[in-house]
Design a protein that fits this description.
By secondary structure, the protein is of the alpha+beta class. It has two domains: 3-76; 82-280, no CATH class. It contains seven helices and 13 strands. Strands 1, 4, 5, 9, 10, 11, 12 and 13 form an eight-stranded mixed β-sheet that branches. It has a three-stranded antiparallel β-sheet with strand order 6-7-8, with no helix packed on it. The protein has a two-stranded antiparallel ribbon with strand order 2-3. Strand 11 (251-259) and strand 12 (266-271) form a beta hairpin. The radius of gyration is 22 Å and the shape is globular.
């Protein structure tokens, strides 16, 4: 619907409360669209310059001043924010059953990871909401803009999506959970499974297809919570690099994390497997 038609439709609403809600919702959508157009504009300038065009040439071709091109280049949301999503995203963390109260709660480690991922997304101009995987593992994954922090143990629905990964697989043996690169045969474990134990973890990072096939979602999971925190640490430092390598395509990789054993905080995070683009498999 054209913008003017939307405005006329909303203005014609007689109920003042419905009018207020409709105007607010439309304004939120308009603000998201402005953010994404600004991101797209900045990315186009960066891409053209990377192809060898000068900013003066870009300005001339686009009918803009050179000063305006430089202003666009340095303002607005960074293009790499699209690695996380566009417009609005929802950060999903699992609920766990508190045995003392019998209530569903978000574990402190999951809350910490979710909060940091939310803050990272907001820093790129995205509108951020939150949701949870239920204690029973139920979650609607057929929605746009999902950023999921959940391993295969917590949800059958999530585990089925992991099983569609053609390269990186979750497995379990007598030592516990592990990640296996089926192409190379390399196994990635937590340092707690070694002798002597080490303050390290391995974590999954990928973008997988939704169950309905109508989109994808980003998913993160460490073998232990410090692994998930390490992935977010990596995203904070290396999002532009990851965006340049995989864009918004389906992919998966394994992140190696070193953490402070006193508090579980990551001190180092890096890719320890190849970064596999699934459309090349």
């Amino acid at each position: 619907m054209p913008p003017r038609d939307n405005l006329d439709r909303i203005a014609a609403i007689e109920d003042p409360y419905l009018l207020l809600r409709a105007a607010t919702e439309q304004l939120n959508l308009a603000q998201q669209e402005v953010t994404e157009l600004a991101r797209l504009r900045r990315r186009i300038i960066q891409d053209l310059h990377a192809q060898g065009m000068s900013y003066a040439a870009i300005a001339e071709k686009a009918g803009l001043s050179r000063g305006r091109i430089h202003q666009i280049r340095h303002t607005g949301p960074a293009p790499e924010g699209a690695f996380l999503g566009t417009g609005a995203v929802t950060v999903v963390t699992p609920l766990r059953l508190d045995p003392q109260t019998g209530r569903s709660v978000v574990a402190l480690d999951d809350m910490r990871a979710g909060s940091r991922l939310e803050n990272l997304a907001r820093g790129f101009g995205l509108t951020v909401g939150s949701d949870n995987v239920s204690v029973d593992g139920d979650i609607d994954l057929n929605r746009p803009g999902l950023l999921v922090i959940c391993g295969p143990r917590m949800s059958a629905a999530v585990r089925e999506c992991y099983d569609k990964d053609p390269v990186i697989r979750w497995e379990r043996d007598e030592k516990g959970w592990l990640l296996r690169d089926v192409r190379t045969g390399t196994v990635y474990r937590s340092g707690t499974q070694t002798d002597p134990p080490r303050a390290t973890d391995s974590a999954y990072l990928g973008r997988l297809p939704r169950p309905d096939g109508n989109g994808t979602f980003l998913i993160i999971a460490g073998i232990h919570p410090s692994g998930s925190l390490g992935v977010i640490h990596l995203l904070t430092d290396e999002l532009a690099t990851l965006w340049g390598q995989v864009g918004d395509r389906q992919f998966s990789t394994v992140v190696g994390v070193e953490y402070d054993p006193s508090n579980g905080e990551p001190v180092k995070a890096e890719l320890i497997s190849p970064l596999y683009r699934h459309d090349e498999e």
